[in-house]
UniProtKB/TrEMBL annotation:
Orotidine 5'-phosphate decarboxylase domain segment(s): 4-228
Protein name as catalogued: Orotidine 5'-phosphate decarboxylase
Reactions mediated catalytically: orotidine 5'-phosphate + H(+) = UMP + CO2
InterPro entries, alphabetized: Aldolase_TIM, OMPdecase, OMPdecase_AS, OMPdecase_bac, OMPdeCOase_dom, RibuloseP-bd_barrel
Quaternary assembly: Homodimer.
Domain of life per record: Bacteria
Pathway, per record: Pyrimidine metabolism; UMP biosynthesis via de novo pathway; UMP from orotate: step 2/2
Gene3D superfamilies in alphabetical order: Aldolase class I (3.20.20.70)
Alphabetical GO biological process terms: 'de novo' pyrimidine nucleobase biosynthetic process; 'de novo' UMP biosynthetic process
EC class: lyase
Any GO MF annotation of the entry: orotidine-5'-phosphate decarboxylase activity
Active-site annotation: D59, K61, D64
Cellular component, GO annotation: cytosol
Amino acid sequence: MEYPVIIALDFPSGAEVFHFLRKFPDEPLFVKVGMELFYREGPAIVQQIKGMGHSIFLDLKLHDIPNTVGRAMKGIARLGVDLVTVHAAGGTEMMKAALAGLDQGTGAGQKRPKCVAVTQLTSTSEWQMQKEQLVLSTLEQSVYHYAKLAKQSGLDGVISSVHEAPIIRHLGEEFLIITPGIRLENDDVRDQKRVATPKQARQSGASAIVVGRSITESHDPYETFLKIKQQWELIGV
Ligand SMILES: O=c1ccn([C@@H]2O[C@H](COP(=O)(O)O)[C@@H](O)[C@H]2O)c(=O)[nH]1
């Protein structure tokens, strides 16, 4: 599977998603369906977007007891999505249950969705982590610790910021490092704390980038997508 620029479809309704997607030529994209859209539109939105030929990252960030997460993942696998998330803070037992659920829900001849764990959200600063989570290590140590737990649990990779990607890469070339918190040079960072450009992401060894508002709120989303893709592919930069 190719992991290009993943577009976060953070919209409040399916109608707004389809209006947005009409601004793109008829070519397959890799899109992310998150909580806002999924909780409003339900599983039907996944089927509709899949029906348009796009690959889907269903980013529901599951974090619950192992039994609940395992059963939820069984249902999620039946949607035929490509990539899903859990929180590494749920622990190794929960992450293993997530994978077992995905295996159970994946039909014969289908590919199991890849499963990656959120380490520390890109909206979390080191100061916040230490004060609010009472984690006394550095942010990089915490992210790397969670990445190792995800790997031990058999997961396919993690979500982290670009800044931690080089150290996570020590866990292997195949281990996926999906990085949100992506901004072009003069973009407003908004609620994100650990941000980087597409070019920095590629140079840091990230496997893929996730971009939301820089594209969805752009006056020309397709042109911005192409600009980001060009930086990500290190073309002419
Ligand atoms: O640590 C994380 C995990 C997930 N996200 C998601 O990525 C996008 C980023 O949106 P922007 O508008 O580009 O900031 C969003 O859907 C988040 O839920 C993340 O940002 N950080």
